[in-house]
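Hi R.,

Here's the chain you asked about this morning:
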Amino acid sequence: MKQSREIKSFIFGQYFTDGLRITIGVLLPSLIFYHLNLLSVGLTISLGAVCISIADTQGPINHKRNGMLYCNILVFLTALLTGLLNRYPVLIGLEILVLCFLYSMLSVYGNRASSIGTAALLIMILTIDQEAISSNGVWKHSLYILCGGIWYMILSLSLSQIRPFRLAQQAMGECIREVARYVKLKADFYDIHSDFDENYKKLVAQQVIVHEQQDSVRELLFKTRIMVKESTPVGRLLIVVFVDIVDLFEQTMATHYDYQAIRNTFGKTESLHEFNRIIIKMADELENLSYYIISNDKPQPLYDFRPELEKLKAGIDKTEESGINVLVLKKILINVRNMLNRVEKIYAYFNQQQISNLTDVDYSKFVSHQDYDTKILKENFSLKSSVFRHSVRVSLMCFTGFLISKLFPVGYHSYWILLTILVILKPAYSLTKQRNIERVIGTVIGGLLGALILYLVKDQTSRFILLMIFMVGTYSFQRLNYIVSVLFMTPYILILFSILGANNINIVKERVLDTFIGSFVALISSFVVLPNWEYYQLKDIMKDVLIANYNYLYQVAQKLSGKTPDITSFKLVRKDVYVSSANLGSAFQRMLSEPKSKQQNIKDIHKFVVLNHMISSYTATLIMNLNQYESTIADISHIRMIRKSLYSLSELIKAMGVTDFKELEINVPEIASVPNRSNDSKLLYEQLELVNKLIQDIQKLNKI
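And the predicted structure, written out as tokens:
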């Protein structure tokens, strides 16, 4: 059943939908013009569609439209310029140097602008092949490219308008699935046999993925007018579900305690095993929810958790009767029960006839807004900018690939070398290394598969059917799993060339050889030409995460002082913690893939990552618990401890070179000066003390 659900989720999901759309957009022009005996024209139009599909990234419809429109303009002008310069190798070499640099610099404006630059570079590389435009002429060739781009843009926007909520549903389903995986990792902390440090490592890595998915959903929901401004039932439903999923994710972080101490104290009881089992089932419930949302069906819950929660409570009570203090277990039980109630609440939304009107919240504050000021470009014209260094590297290496293709007999389709360099070369060495390995493995396996198909399948109709299957696979996996995408891509290209009458064996050899050459050039360059090691970027990322945790911890101080923070401001602070923590975790993961000689203070940085994750998790726990406590449990000892923690954190931030950082004031309320001796008050103080200890542990990592 689980396998069938996985297959169905993939078929109804965003990646397969993207694959089908791109395949239709690319294949249809060639088929139509083939029947008109104008195959070369059809292939050129299809090429334009391929380029514009690169800029068809996920996001609001108006952003997609604008991105594809600008992409069409740049692709047309680049194709025209390259066609005019094609007979002059020296000028082509100069064009490669200049355009590779300029188009790579577009990434300072975000992923969409970066994809537009990549599409323009792709058409430049493919147009260098003089034979491709000899039959049509430069202007006709460029206009056919433009027609293909416009055709694909119309197709994509039309499909988006037909089902305006579908993209958001698919993204929402993927987001919930990643949250479910995060919840399962949290369950492992209650398994006394699991590796504690390895759990943290996986948890930090998964938090990065969850953040990326949440950011994607925010873009689709909060930047789309039809979702926020118009009172459509589906739009309201998606927004309230997403808000609850984000809150649920925070609650998941809030079920964070001193797990080592909990294991030592309660490891021999059944309580930890029951917590592990219930939390895993909760994750299954979330996966079930994601399946129904992706399938565009009404969700049906899997479990009734009430009997299991009663059993768990009875077990905790039994442990308490034996004389062990079980206050921590009771707090965890409350958090788990609240999380399950929120899951039930999300399911209930789908059974309501009407979702109540949304609160008057400025949702635009929760999404990043890209500034396209030319000052940003000017500011990045410096060797200190990682984008500038990457752009120089792309420019020089593509020029090197062009020289290799002209000076050495590497084959008729030597532009594949440039394509390989362009696709593999990434700003970070670790990403280039990963993409390099995936490209080589995918090409070799795909080449063998393609050669086998061409040897066994002689019927042209059968080959064409296989071509369509491989096309869909290529475009479905290009944003999901690159190695699988390349594995599909290579047979697809080989079958395409065989249909066009090329020599199959030579094409296979050439494809593999060019891939190896391009991969080698790209990998060496990322190590030698203006390398961008993560260590140099980490200090700024560390500053950001410390400031975010300071502002988050200040929310605890506000609650202890008797103030209720504005809900929007609180959620923005919480979002900053997630974003900065995800950036830190992602940078650390990339650093682990770099050469050992470039991994400076790796153990200390790993401790820093884990300790900061623990601080944000404990802060979330404190906020969650304070919402449940009565205000009277706070006393002067709590205020002193939170002040001490905030002061230590501010001193740490200043010590890392943040000159414009300002400490926030804490107003002392009229509270008891005598310490409160209730169990809740004691647990609150212990949690505050633990946060302070974590901050002191970070201060000790002065070598970073």
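The chain has a mean pLDDT of 81.

Let me know if you need anything else.
M.
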